[in-house]
Design brief:
There is one protein chain. This protein has one domain. Helix content is about 20%, strand content about 40%. It contains 2 helices and 10 strands, in the order αββββββββββα. Strands 1, 2, 3, 4, 5, 8, 9 and 10 form an 8-stranded antiparallel beta sheet that branches. The chain has a two-stranded antiparallel ribbon with strand order 6-7.
């Protein structure tokens, strides 16, 4: 069983060090940016959780047991051109530029 918390800690550490990385785990995609952000995406259902924003760790809820894990998804996302767009549960839309969109899309489409 994949220890998702270990992968989340890894991607947050990468974001904290301004290191853009992408980790693919089945339908999940974790990525960090050079601007101190980190996200986890459900590539099938287009859900997202912001793990870190501007080098500040965000609050998120993940249930991880020895046999399964689950998420309380905060956002829905989509990619449009060179922007990463998220919609939160309150209906607020945020458009983000500067992410490694080509690499993210490449991993999503694998």
């Amino acid at each position: 069983m994949i220890k998702i918390k270990k992968e989340i800690d890894y991607i947050i550490k990468r974001a904290n060090e301004c290191d853009a990385r992408i980790v693919r785990i089945n339908e999940l995609l974790l990525f960090s940016t050079e601007t101190g952000d980190a996200w986890i995406l459900d590539t099938e259902d287009k859900f997202a959780i912001c793990l870190m924003q501007n080098w500040i760790k965000q609050k998120y809820k993940i249930i991880d047991t020895s046999t399964q894990f689950g998420f309380d998804w905060d956002y829905q996302y989509h990619i449009e051109g060179d922007s990463f767009i998220v919609l939160n549960k309150s209906g607020v839309i945020k458009q983000i530029f500067g992410y490694p969109i080509q690499e993210i899309e490449k991993q999503i489409n694998k």
